[in-house]
Design goal:
single chain; alpha+beta; 2 domains; 4-stranded mixed sheet; 3 helices; about 15% strand
């Protein structure tokens, strides 16, 4: 086996200190990543479930409802609020547009 380490004790001790410092840095980074991952997992578990139905709101006075979506619809705008199934049915019956991407009608028992 080739011996590529220094032959004297002072340099070997210096290498040992240097490697110990690197191992401490690596261990600290590993611990920080474990803490970060655990916090992310706790955050995901604590996140509330999305609402079943959301209504997209218009702009202007009173922010009238303009479109109904399934709760996790990617096409819903930023101005929105959650609604219960009964209100969602009422909104569709009153002529509010149903999203063509998530089609909330069938989930509410409304066809056509």
């Amino acid at each position: 086996m080739p011996d590529d380490l220094p032959p004297d004790l002072p340099r070997l001790e210096a290498l040992r200190v240097w490697h110990r410092l690197w191992l401490e840095r690596i261990d600290q980074k590993i611990e920080a990543l474990r803490v970060r991952d655990a916090e992310r997992e706790r955050g995901e578990q604590a996140r509330p479930a999305p609402p079943e139905w959301i209504v997209e709101l218009g702009i202007g006075d009173g922010r009238p409802p303009v479109e109904l979506h399934v709760g996790g619809c990617y096409a819903a705008g930023k101005r929105r609020r959650p609604v219960e199934a009964e209100e969602a049915r009422r909104l569709l019956a009153s002529g509010i547009r149903a999203c063509t991407h998530c089609t909330p009608g069938p989930g509410l028992g409304i066809t056509g």
